[in-house]
């Protein structure tokens, strides 16, 4: 299917703890369609972050297939994997991971500069994206000079500036108060619609999860439809 952005089959991941194997993912199957927003919920330690890392190619699975835009990521070189990851995926974390010594504008322009876009174009696009997240008046502020909500909005701008096919967000609003969390979430949804990106959001917040088109729960190492989970 052409409009599947990320898919995985029989995905497993186990960690070694000395001689002991710790199985975390035990056969995850998933198809994420272009433009779709999926929320993944699950108890603490159920493997949600592990799943996002493996799907995003930040960590290797123990077994199973992952396809990003139709490409099986185990069958391409590390360089191709990096290119696919940088070109097609955007990551948003609970902690913003902005570079403290750079301004908001420089932080958001960074992924474009890494792709060798001309400076002027990179900064213009970064400024446009910061405008969309309501930070036009904070371009020259470093992360330390921004509020928590502003930092997270800058991180959303940075993840979306490359117009990725898919955004992987791990508790993107976990550090924010309820009102700011809703604002950041609204923004993610709005930008998601604008660039028709797919979105996987891991969240503990069921109110936010309920706004996704689909919610799945990670239980005992597999993804279940929420209606199957009870
Ligand atoms: N590098 C590692 N080595 C060994 N065990 C690990 C490693 N990384 C994660 N784990 C284990 O895998 C399990 C799943 O961790 P993960 O962070 O994916 O859970 P989570 O569902 O995201 O949890 P939370 O909601 O608390 O953030 C945990 O039991 C954790 O201890």
From TrEMBL:
GO cellular component terms given for this protein: plasma membrane
Record's subcellular location: Cell inner membrane
InterPro entries: AAA+_ATPase, ABC_transporter-like_ATP-bd, ABC_transporter-like_CS, ABC_transpr_LolD-like, LolD_lipo_ATP-bd, MacB-like_ATP-bd, P-loop_NTPase
Protein topology in the membrane: Peripheral membrane protein
SMART domains associated with the record: AAA (SM00382)
Domain of life: Bacteria
Major location (coarse): membrane
Enzyme class: translocase
Molecular function via GO: ATP binding; ATP hydrolysis activity; transmembrane transporter activity
Keywords assigned by UniProt, alphabetized: ATP-binding, Cell inner membrane, Cell membrane, Lipoprotein, Membrane, Nucleotide-binding, Translocase, Transport
Every ABC transporter domain range: 6-230
GO BP terms in the entry: lipoprotein localization to outer membrane; protein localization to outer membrane
Database matches in Pfam families: ABC_tran
CDD domains named among the record's database cross-references: ABC_MJ0796_LolCDE_FtsE (cd03255)
EC number(s) recorded for this UniProt protein: 7.6.2.-
Its job: Part of the ABC transporter complex LolCDE involved in the translocation of mature outer membrane-directed lipoproteins, from the inner membrane to the periplasmic chaperone, LolA. Responsible for the formation of the LolA-lipoprotein complex in an ATP-dependent manner.
Family per similarity comment: Belongs to the ABC transporter superfamily. Lipoprotein translocase (TC 3.A.1.125) family.
Record's subunit section: The complex is composed of two ATP-binding proteins (LolD) and two transmembrane proteins (LolC and LolE).
Protein name: Lipoprotein-releasing system ATP-binding protein LolD
Species whose genome carries this gene: Nitrosomonas oligotropha
Gene behind this protein: lolD
